[in-house]
Specification:
single chain; mainly alpha; 4 helices
């Protein structure tokens, strides 16, 4: 039996996105470190329209992104062991 186009589409959509976790973590860590060390330069290089008052918030956001990637995108609010 040949599955319909829609069935095949649903099967594909249910598959997790594959990416190199180590590479993503390295890039996020580099972004986090750079934004923390010199936010003004970081913001001008990445075309962010933020001023220095947002530097700590931005750094914390990148730090959170690293944690999310490390745990595989699992929502910590639904896990008791995290």
């Amino acid at each position: 039996m040949i599955p319909s186009w829609w069935s095949a589409y649903k099967i594909i959509k249910e598959q997790p996105t594959a990416f190199d976790v180590d590479k993503v973590l390295t890039e996020l860590q580099e972004e986090k470190d750079y934004s923390y060390s010199d936010f003004e330069s970081y913001a001008s290089e990445t075309d962010l329209f933020l001023d220095a008052e947002y530097d700590d918030l931005f750094y914390k956001g990148l730090e959170r992104a690293v944690k999310i990637v490390k745990r595989g995108g699992i929502d910590a609010r639904n896990r008791k062991d995290l």
